[in-house]
Write a structure and sequence with these properties.
It contains two helices and no strands. By secondary structure, the protein is mostly helical. This is Flagellar FliJ protein.
Length: 141
């Protein structure tokens, strides 16, 4: 593989890393939003329960809480489900970023090995040229 192809591969791998970083950032924001929604749903249940159990609350407030509670629990379950899915998507994005970084590092190492190989070949050619020049000058009277 020639150097230009390797440089293109490296550029593509770095672009994939950037894309994976952006995706992870988006997933982290989504996870934060679902965490906030879950906290809001849980907070709503706590507030409604506290209002229904307050010393000045009448039976109507307790009945309203009892009627509302299934809705509040459903909202909390949905928020928890969304948060779990967001957490899984974040973990997947972290994994994808790790893979993209590994691929970029492999491309960098491949290019370094290629460059080192060509440097060794050039050094050998230079040494052969110096040896040839030395042997020619040694043959001259």
């Amino acid at each position: 593989m020639n150097r230009a192809v390797m440089l293109t591969l490296l550029r593509l791998r770095r672009l994939a890393c950037e894309d994976a970083r952006r995706t992870l950032a988006t997933r982290l924001q989504e996870e934060d939003a679902t965490r906030a929604a879950l906290a809001a749903a849980e907070g709503g249940i706590v507030r409604e329960r506290a209002a229904a159990a307050a010393p000045g609350a009448d039976d109507a407030m307790a009945e309203a809480f009892a009627a509302w509670l299934p809705h509040g629990l459903r909202a909390r379950a949905q928020a928890d489900d969304s948060h779990q899915r967001a957490g899984a998507a974040t973990a997947e994005a972290r994994s994808a970023l790790a893979m993209a970084r590994t691929n970029a590092e492999a491309a960098e190492r491949l290019l370094a090995v290629h460059d080192a190989h060509h440097a060794i070949k050039a050094a050998r050619r230079a040494q052969a040229a110096m040896d040839e020049a030395a042997s020619r000058s040694a043959r001259r009277p």
